Amino acid sequence: MNRLFSAVAALALSAAPAFADLELPRPSPLARVSQVVGLTEIAVEYSSPAVRGRKVFGGLLPFGELWRTGANSATKVSFSKDVLVAGKPVPAGSYALFTIPNEKSWTVILNKNVNQGGTRDYKKELDVLRFEAKPQSIPHRERLAFLVDDFTEDKANLDLEWDTVRVTIPVETHTAEQAAANIKGLTDGAARQYTSAARYELEQKKDYDLGLRLVDQSIALKEDWLNVWTKAQLLAARGDHKDAYALAEKANALGQKADNFFYADDVKKALAEWKTKK
Fold it and tell me: How far apart are CA 223 and CA 231, in angstroms?
């Protein structure tokens, strides 16, 4: 009898419908933003709460109290390389972002313990840095958002926006030093790598002599219209328009035979300009 009961129970259980997890919108959905600034990736992972008609700063979030700067768990900020945040050095890595909102000034904190659900486990001795930031007024933003804004190769603003408040976290990268080290370490590279390094020196107006040495290495490996054109530009930048013109003519001839002569208009314009200067 017991065996019969067990068999019937097992059959009943196996026949019970399997319900899928109920999927509904979360009150504070997960969000991610990332941006490469120069050679450094800046990334933020956070949960985005909504205003929902509430008074946020000075209400839902009392002034002067530590905030995990998001919902569900502490917001995580990551830097793929060493940076400066508000002028202070921060090693590459991931950090928990905490803030202390106030009406006229916010305290912004990066903390080493990234696995924090909230403020209960926060330890000040694990802070990497603290700095003061002045909040700015913005048009209403319903949900908390982070944006990497106004960035160049060397710096960016990491903006926190919610309700009618924006707080900016200034980040500086070490792009020039990193690029210089990469170029210096370039050995046994392909022709296109030497061309790219030479164009970096050209476009950033760094070191034209170094650029010429790099492009000569590229040409020695495999001559094409792009490295010849790059050398022409470097010579023109140094004021040698006679040799630059001759190389531009050569680059134009090579380019006309190539599948993708994407600097054709620039070469044509340079030929007209340098002809009067050679």
Answer: 11
54 Cα distance to chain centroid: 33
Element (H, E) at 225: helix 225-237
- The structure's pTM equals 0.84
What CA–CA distance (Å, rounded) separates 278 from 267?
15
Mean pLDDT of 202-212: 95
DSSP structural state of residue 81: S
Quick one: three-class SS letters along 107-152?
EEEEECCCCCCCCCCCCHHHEEEEEEECCEEEEEEEEEEEEEECCC
Each residue of 244-276: pLDDT tens digit?
Answer: 999 999 999 999 999 999 999 999 999 999 998
Q: Mind listing the domains of the chain with CATH numbers?
A: 30-173 (no CATH), 186-274 (1.25.40)
Task: Record the tokens describing residue 182, joined without a space.
Answer: 């990469």
Whether residue 63 contacts residue 79, with contact meaning beta carbons closer than 8 Å, is answered with no
Return all residues near 115 (Cβ < 8 A) that are at least 6 apart. none
- Sign, CA dihedral 226-231-236-241, equals negative
